[in-house]
Write a structure and sequence with these properties.
heterodimer; A: alpha+beta; three-stranded antiparallel sheet; B: alpha/beta; globular; Glutamyl-tRNA(Gln) amidotransferase subunit A (chain B); Amidase_dom (chain B); EC 6.3.5.7 (chain B)
Chain lengths: ~500, ~500
């Protein structure tokens, strides 16, 4: 059933957009949040278990201190109030993927309280996103529904539960209601999520791979007639796991809700789902007062006491934050604002940095990643990172050019063969014989041949008319399939006619 | 009287001494107790499961050790023990006396079981209890009633009626229990045995099936104060798998008990809790209590009355906190991963949610359901502050009361239970009457204090009466000294342990 949608520009013109994001970040600790079960993506189902992660009778949780330190790191990066005392509570509800039938999550006493994150938009505008909290909780297992049409529970014949993920530590970053974004709400949401991704990667606390479910967000949206009106009823679109999906969800919800409100309708307080196939959100469970998780402090766990000296210790080891790093690299590489923004937008910052580290110039690295390689990634429909060429390969190609061993044309061919999986640039050059013919002996013979074949040209040159030199170079190029260096050819010809 | 009967009537400390003197082997002790179990079980039904093969193998393993290796083990090494079926044992079915866990064989050992195994103490089997330790008579077991060895028409108390009856009936010299509101101490009082609830956090709860996590504590059930002290020292001490475990070494309880046996209490200040006793307490319970107070004074203790003004709210607070935590702790029994699974009837949708409902409906008994419903209600949005929140505040007030009391005295005393053991069926239909039986034991759980019940003599109808000591938090040894002194003074009066007055027909005709 297609829902009525208002045009986006009209919707954001008529209504004030308020949105909020609840971002789940899976921490990359070696073991689970409350037991020493090993964590590994893609392991055989139900192999990463202890009595605790399976919730066996008598088992008890013990907090993984590394996970708490990771949370503090993130709290510092988000300028959060780090609370001296924090506490885990039980969120009680029955679900097959929850081994204890309650989730252990920080509730009214989170480790990280209020903070903020400044995000930079494409045009350079900086927007401050207010953070409500960033709390620690454990993940549930994973249900697989078998026998239904599309892996959904509806129509499934039976379900399988894999508890490997049960107990994996998560941090949930909850923003305050974000106001004042107007029609830029989707853009801000996307930039915020990317900024979070960059921060957790820089901190080394999460792999932050959206496609592996390391990061996902619940998108809350509500509209109101004006900025001074009370907040409207919100919808919550759960577990959106791509940046584009988050932006599109916001856009869609703004248009959907505006259409309903415009007709005098009411927004249901409900959870919805983003459907990538139809590019729409679909209604789910209606939230009501019946949702009662009966939170209470988990009596199996003592309160976490985080001293200022411990916070100071962690603060002293904080790596450079992404925004500062970008500014530093911009200076080091001597890029303009626009060049740097192109690099960021292409998601090529890390790749260029690594390429430079491997010996290339910044300009050279940028030329490849934003030029030929971006086009190739686009053609293949993959990210730059997913291309089968490494920063080291790119740096090697640059070095071959600098050494005069490849010209531009050969370099492009070499890169294409590397992308095709034929090996490193050096291997490709060797195997395919792509070297610039700069060996003077071999080149000289070819040049002599060309001169003999074109006596009239040689005569003109001898008489001081340099115009037909191009014809000789062309002939040499044809003979060498483009691997000759024009300068060298000219040099040899000049020496011969003297 | 056969040799077997004489052997099993020794205290655990005496059995251990015979092992050291090579007068008896661990295997002989296990065999003697297995013989008593075989003879007594038809009348007592204290055990849900007897692990004879495991116990014999463990005994043989101990007997085969060199003298040098044996010397490194705790004093009770080689002495067998029974385990309340609320504590998980690897490879031995563990049910919490509930249908919902019928047939569940744990893949791991509780910390206390690991420590018993490290001490080479053979495990005789798993004892009966009220389902999930919810009850004060063991009548709420889904499997069987356990009879009081003093009078098989009476309950052994609860929830740890099986452990107490096994120890009182000489089926085991030692047992472990769990005490959430008195489940070790009240059965101790009802069966004329010693029951100890250590300080909260003094013994690891890892592997103790949770009823109410902030109240549960594992502790010893024995026939002497010294035996309890020795057993506490085996199972106690820090465990990193329990976040609420106290990161300190075990307290010197055995030393205190041995000191107490000298019956010199000069300089000790004993506080009699004014608010526990009087109305609702059986007269001969109070009489035995007062006689014991006199004995303590005779040994040099100064006994003064102290007030814990908020103790009157303890029972109410307990019946909010305990069911609240239990409702959450028992959620995991949903048929998904282990234990009972009941599928819905064919005309009901075969969903996971329906399976959970049918499983829990079939698997839990009435008392368990009652407490889950109570707790679910108390934690509900809008009620949380009024119920759970208020109960926690009451708890703080009671802790403050005790702190003030311990500013004045070294140790506190009161009766363990208002009555002696009652008859089967007497209170089973009246939950409130059953709950009130825990009125004197609950305050120690709410405050996390160590407490101990020892036999104080018999009522007019010949049933045991319990006398309770409470000590300051993390100072368990403090109560062992006066308890051992009182035990010694009473045994001198009676001309032997209290069980000398008990009829034990199952010990007749045992040969060895």
């Amino acid at each position: 059933m297609a829902e009525k949608l208002m045009k986006y520009a009209e919707a954001t013109d008529k209504y004030d957009v308020v949105f909020g994001l609840e971002t789940h970040v899976e921490l990359s600790t070696n073991t689970k949040l409350f037991c020493p079960a090993h964590i590994e993506f893609g392991g055989e189902p139900n192999t990463q278990l202890t009595p605790v992660s399976l919730g066996l009778p008598g088992s008890l949780p013990v907090v993984n201190e590394t996970a708490v330190d990771y949370a503090i790191k993130l709290g510092l990066a988000l300028h959060c109030q780090i609370n001296e005392w924090s506490q885990f509570a039980r969120k009680n509800y029955f679900y097959p993927d929850m081994p204890r039938d309650y989730q252990i999550s920080q509730y009214d006493k989170p480790t990280n309280g209020e903070g903020y994150l400044d995000v930079e938009l494409e045009d350079g505008t900086v927007f401050r996103v207010p953070i409500e909290r960033a709390h620690i909780e454990d993940d549930a297992g994973k249900n697989t529904h078998v026998g239904g049409a599309d892996g959904r529970i509806e129509g499934a014949d039976h379900s399988l539960v894999d508890y490997n993920r049960a107990g994996v530590p998560l941090i949930e970053i909850v923003t305050k209601p974000i106001t004042g974004a107007g029609d830029r709400a989707p853009e801000i949401a996307g930039a915020y999520m990317r900024a979070i991704r960059d921060i957790v990667r820089a901190l080394g606390i999460s792999r932050a791979k959206m496609e592996q479910g390391n990061m996902r967000a619940d998108v809350n949206v509500s509209l109101r007639p004006s900025a001074d009106a009370p907040l409207g009823t919100r919808s919550e679109t759960k577990n959106v796991n791509t940046f584009r999906g988050i932006e599109k969800t916001l856009r869609y919800e703004i248009r959907r809700q505006a259409a309903i409100l415009d007709e005098g309708g009411e927004i249901l307080q409900e959870t919805r789902h983003w459907d990538e196939a139809t590019q729409t959100t679909a209604g789910g469970r209606v939230k009501s007062d019946a949702d009662d998780y009966r939170y209470f402090p988990d009596p199996d766990l003592v309160m976490l006491h985080i001293t200022q000296s411990h916070i100071d210790e962690i603060a002293a080891q904080m790596p450079e934050m992404p925004r500062e790093r970008r500014n530093r690299l911009k200076d080091e590489w001597n890029f303009s604002d626009i060049e740097m923004r192109d690099v960021i937008n292409a998601d090529a910052l890390d790749l260029i940095e690594e390429t430079v580290k491997a010996g290339a110039t910044a300009a050279g690295a940028k030329k490849w990643w934003l030029g030929e390689l971006s086009r190739e990634a686009n053609n293949q429909g993959v990210t730059l990172e997913e291309l089968s060429i490494t920063p080291a390969d790119v740096a090697e190609v640059e070095k071959l050019i600098a050494d005069g061993k490849l010209n531009d044309k050969l370099a492009k061919q070499t890169v294409n063969f590397v992308l095709a999986g034929e090996g490193t640039p050096a291997e490709v050059v060797e195997k395919r014989g792509l070297k610039v013919v700069s060996d003077d002996g071999a080149l000289e013979a070819i040049v002599m041949e060309a001169m003999e074949a074109n006596p009239d040209v040689v005569e003109k040159l001898k008489s001081g008319n340099m115009k037909p030199m191009g014809a000789l170079i062309g002939a040499v190029m044809r003979a060498t399939k483009g691997s000759a260096d024009a300068k060298s050819v000219t040099k040899i010809v000049m020496s011969k006619i003297k | 009287m056969s040799d077997t009967a004489a052997l099993v009537q020794l205290t655990a400390a005496e059995m251990a001494e015979k092992i050291r003197n090579k007068e008896v082997t661990s295997r002989e002790l296990v065999e003697a107790h297995l013989a008593v179990i075989e003879a007594a079980e038809p009348q007592l039904q204290a055990f849900l499961k007897v692990s004879a093969q495991e116990a014999l193998a463990q005994a043989d393993e101990f007997d085969a050790l060199s003298d040098e290796d044996k010397a490194k083990l705790p004093e009770l090494a080689g002495v067998p023990i029974a385990i309340k079926d609320m504590i998980v044992t690897e490879g031995i079915e563990t049910t919490a006396a509930s249908r919902i866990l019928e047939g569940w064989v744990p893949p791991y050992d509780a910390t206390v079981i690991e420590r018993l195994k490290a001490a080479h103490m053979p495990i005789l089997g798993k004892t009966n209890l009220d389902e999930f330790a919810m009850g004060s008579s063991t009548e709420h077991s889904a499997y069987q009633n356990t009879m009081n060895p003093w009078n098989t028409e009476c309950v052994p108390g609860g929830s740890g009626g099986g452990s107490a009856a096994a120890v009182a009936g000489f089926e085991a010299p030692l047992a472990l229990g769990t005490d959430t509101g008195g489940s070790i101490r009240q059965p101790g009082a009802f069966t004329g045995t010693v029951g100890v609830k250590p300080t909260y956090g003094a013994v690891s709860r890892y592997g103790a099936i949770a009823m109410a996590s902030s109240l549960d504590q594992i502790g010893p059930a024995t026939r002497s104060v010294l035996d309890s002290a020795l057993l506490y020292e085996v199972i106690g001490g820090h465990d990193k798998r329990d976040s609420t475990s106290i990161p300190e070494p075990v307290r010197p309880a055995a030393e205190a008990a041995r000191e107490g046996a000298k019956r010199d209490l000069k300089g000790m200040k004993v506080g009699l809790i004014k608010e526990i006793g009087g109305e609702g307490f059986q007269q001969d319970v109070l009489d035995r209590f007062n006689e014991c107070v006199k004995l303590l004074e005779d040994m040099g203790a100064e006994v003064v009355e102290v007030s814990c003004p908020h103790i009157g709210y303890a029972l109410s607070a307990y019946y909010i906190v305990m069911p609240s935590e239990a409702s959450s702790n028992l959620a995991r029994y949903d048929g998904m991963r282990y234990g009972l699974r009941v599928m819905p009837p064919v005309d009901v949708p075969q969903t996971a949610a329906n399976m959970m409902s049918y499983t829990r409906e079939a698997g839990f008994g009435d008392e368990v359901k009652r407490r889950i419903i109570l707790g679910t209600y108390a934690l509900s949005a809008g009620y949380y502050d009024a119920w759970y929140g208020s109960a926690q505040k009451v708890r703080t007030l009671i802790i403050d009361d005790f702190n003030k009391a311990f500013d004045q005295v070294d140790v506190l005393i009161c009766p363990t239970a208002p009555t002696t053991a009652f008859k089967f069926g007497d209170k089973i239909e009246d939950p409130m009457a059953m709950y009130v039986n825990d009125i004197a034991t609950i305050p120690a759980n709410l405050a996390g204090l160590p407490a101990m019940s020892i036999p104080a003599g018999l009522s007019g109808d010949g049933m045991p009466v319990g006398f309770q000591f409470l000590a300051p938090q993390k100072r368990d040894e403090v109560m062992y000294k006066p308890a051992a002194a009182l035990e010694a003074a009473l045994e001198e009066q009676w001309g032997g342990p209290v069980w000398k007055s008990m009829n034990t027909p199952w010990l007749e005709g045992l040969n060895k």
